[in-house]
Structures are given as structure tokens and as C-alpha cells.
């Protein structure tokens, strides 16, 4: 939006608010109101015709494409391959050849049906979707004229209200007289612009409605017969679908149970289908220790115990442990000094507890 359009929108905002809540005087043309209602219905129905015909066109194409993809997927299910992919000589087909053949025949039928329906679908696009789109383009241009007429009506009502407000003043100054003169000119210009768009739409819309009947009715008839031809072709092709794998004389449910046989009972005998889990965490299999544990650092032979271990160990306990452990070297638990093998116990100072390392 340009700056000029933005300023016009701001000037029309108060009058638009009054018109929305029916405050003050507003211009109402019954003939145009009826024509605008019919035009809105035409716009809605044309948009619906365009969208629905396009959806139908895409749905038929997608249905045929999905049927081809379905037959290929069923072929892969019927054709499991064993062996190494790098060695084609080890591959063995363990599937059902008759099922694979049926899928391939069905894919050929659908492809033939797709080629047969291609001209009909192209006709829907050229005779229904494209003309409806062209009519929508025409309606968009007319809608712009209707919006322009609505804006001119707001300006017309706004200038008339402003002029009436100035004229209703009891004591008018020279400034008020100038404002009245200016307002009269604005009202005259707004009246001319509003009458131009109002008369144009009232004169042209009935002609559009007459042309619309001649334009839309053939579209509906063409769309109806095109759908009829498509459904007839689908019915005839599928009615004469001669695939020996399927027994079309049986009921669909009866044929399903006959083909399935006892495969469900065989599948239920597999232990893997009875695998259950509680969903709760299991206890550790190898104790409460973590699976990965860092190794503890080994102390030096000449290093004494830490302060915490020295405080927790009594002299009697240390002496008992020393007597139970064999070893060539002995160290003092207080000083960490090591007694060599040729030294005697009496050589150490009194009161020291000796332990073997």
C-alpha cells in the first residue's frame, strides 16, 4: 500500500467504524445490495466449482498411481530374497510365483486404465478447470470495482456528515464559511465518484448474471458427463479384469478366509510373536557394580596410609593385620619408614607398630 492509500485508509477509519455499528446516516441502495448479494454467491460457487473439479482430477490420478504402487509393494512382499546381494548366484526366490504374477497382471491392468482415462482427465482440465479459473479472474476484477465503490461510499457519507456538522452551527465565523465552501466541493466530488461506480455496477452486474447462466451451466453438464464416462470406464475395465489368481465368484470375505487358510495359527506358534516385556528396568545381571569401573591407583611401597585410614585404624588392629600378612619388607604405620630384611624388630624405636607390606 502506498502512502497516499494509507492516509486515505486512516481518514476513512472513523466512518467505517460508524458504518459497521450503524451509527449515523449511511447511504443504502436496495438495487445494488441485491446485486452485490448475487455477485457474492456467484463468486463463492465459481470458486467451489474450480476447487472441487481440480480435487476430482487429482483424486483420479492419485488413485491410479496408488494402485500401481500398491501392486509393486505386494510384489515385493511375495518376492522375499535369500542369499547375499553381492553374489546373485546365491539368491533364491522363496515367494509365491502365482501371487507375483497376479500383482504384475493387476499393474498392467491399472496402467492400461490410466492410459484410457488420460484423455478424459485432460478434458476435465481443459473444459472445466481452466474455464472456471478464467471466470475467477474476471470476478476478481469486478470485485476490485465493488471494493472501490464501497470506499467511495464511505467518502461520500463522511463528507456529507462533515458538511452537515458545519451547516448546523448557529454562529458561523469566516473560518467556518471557508470550511463549508471546501466541504461542499468535497461532497460534490464524492457524489460524482460514488454515483459513477454505483451506476456502473448496477448496470453491468445483471448482464454478468445473464452471461453466468450461459457459462456455468455448460460447465456443470460437461463435468457430469465426464464423470459418468470415467466411472463407466472404471467399471468396465475392472468388471472384465481376468486374473486367474482371484476367484471373483466368491464373496469377498469368503474368498479372504479361503486364501488365508491356517496362516494365522502358524504365525501364532512362533515364539517371537509371544515375546512380552513388563517395561520395568531389570536388576543388574552381574551384581550391583557398574559395568565399567576405573581401576584404583596403586600406592607406592614407601608411601604411608592417608590421614583418614590412619585415624580409622587402631594400633592393635594394625599389629594384627601385620602379623597375618607375610612379606619381606615392613614399614611403620606412623612414619612410613621401611625395615629392611637384615634389620631386627628391636632396632625400631619403641611404640611403633610395624606392618608387613
TrEMBL record:
GO terms for molecular function: lipid binding. Residues 149-176 form a coiled coil. Residues 277-324 are annotated as: Disordered. It comes from Magnaporthiopsis poae (strain ATCC 64411 / 73-15) (Kentucky bluegrass fungus). GO terms for cellular component: actin cortical patch; mating projection tip; medial cortex; Rvs161p-Rvs167p complex. Signal peptide: none annotated. Residues 302-324 have a biased composition (Low complexity). Residues 17-269 form the BAR domain. SUPFAM superfamilies: BAR/IMD domain-like (SSF103657). One of its GO terms (biological process) is actin cortical patch localization. Keywords: Coiled coil, SH3 domain. This is Reduced viability upon starvation protein 167.
Amino acid at each position: 500500500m502506498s502512502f497516499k492509500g494509507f492516509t486515505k485508509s486512516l481518514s476513512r477509519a472513523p466512518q467505517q467504524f460508524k458504518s459497521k455499528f450503524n451509527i449515523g446516516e449511511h447511504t443504502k441502495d436496495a438495487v445494488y445490495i441485491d446485486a452485490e448479494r448475487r455477485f457474492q454467491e456467484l463468486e463463492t460457487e465459481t470458486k467451489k466449482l474450480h476447487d472441487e473439479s481440480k480435487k476430482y482430477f487429482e483424486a483420479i490420478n492419485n488413485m491410479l498411481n496408488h494402485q500401481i504402487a500398491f501392486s509393486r509393494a505386494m510384489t515385493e512382499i511375495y518376492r522375499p530374497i535369500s542369499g547375499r546381494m553381492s553374489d546373485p548366484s546365491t539368491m533364491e526366490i522363496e515367494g509365491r510365483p502365482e501371487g507375483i504374477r497376479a500383482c504384475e497382471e493387476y499393474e498392467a491392468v491399472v496402467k492400461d486404465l490410466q492410459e484410457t482415462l488420460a484423455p478424459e482427465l485432460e478434458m476435465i482440465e481443459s473444459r472445466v478447470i481452466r474455464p472456471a479459473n478464467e471466470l475467477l479472474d474476471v470476478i476478481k476484477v469486478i470485485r476490485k470495482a465493488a471494493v472501490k465503490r464501497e470506499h467511495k461510499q464511505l467518502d461520500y457519507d463522511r463528507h456529507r456528515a462533515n458538511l452537515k456538522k458545519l451547516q448546523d452551527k448557529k454562529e458561523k465565523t469566516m473560518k467556518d464559511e471557508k470550511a463549508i465552501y471546501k466541504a461542499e466541493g468535497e461532497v460534490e466530488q464524492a457524489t460524482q465518484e460514488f454515483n459513477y461506480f454505483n451506476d456502473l455496477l448496477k448496470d453491468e452486474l445483471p448482464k454478468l448474471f445473464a452471461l453466468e447462466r450461459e457459462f456455468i451451466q455448460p460447465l456443470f453438464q460437461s463435468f457430469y458427463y465426464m464423470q459418468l464416462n470415467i466411472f463407466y470406464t472404471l467399471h468396465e475395465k475392472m468388471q472384465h479384469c481376468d486374473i486367474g489368481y482371484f476367484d471373483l465368484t466368491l464373496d469377498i470375505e469368503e474368498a479372504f478366509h479361503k486364501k488365508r487358510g491356517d496362516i494365522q495359527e502358524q504365525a501364532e506358534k512362533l515364539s517371537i510373536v509371544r515375546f512380552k516385556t513388563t517395561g520395568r528396568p531389570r536388576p543388574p545381571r552381574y551384581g550391583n557394580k557398574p559395568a565399567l569401573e576405573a581401576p584404583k591407583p596403586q600406592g607406592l611401597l614407601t608411601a604411608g596410609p592417608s590421614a583418614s585410614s590412619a585415624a580409622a585404624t587402631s594400633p592393635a588392629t594394625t599389629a594384627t593385620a601385620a602379623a597375618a600378612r607375610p612379606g619381606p619388607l615392613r614399614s611403620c604405620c606412623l612414619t612410613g619408614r621401611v625395615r629392611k630384611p637384615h634389620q631386627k624388630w628391636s632396632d625400631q624405636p619403641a611404640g611403633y607398630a610395624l606392618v608387613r607390606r
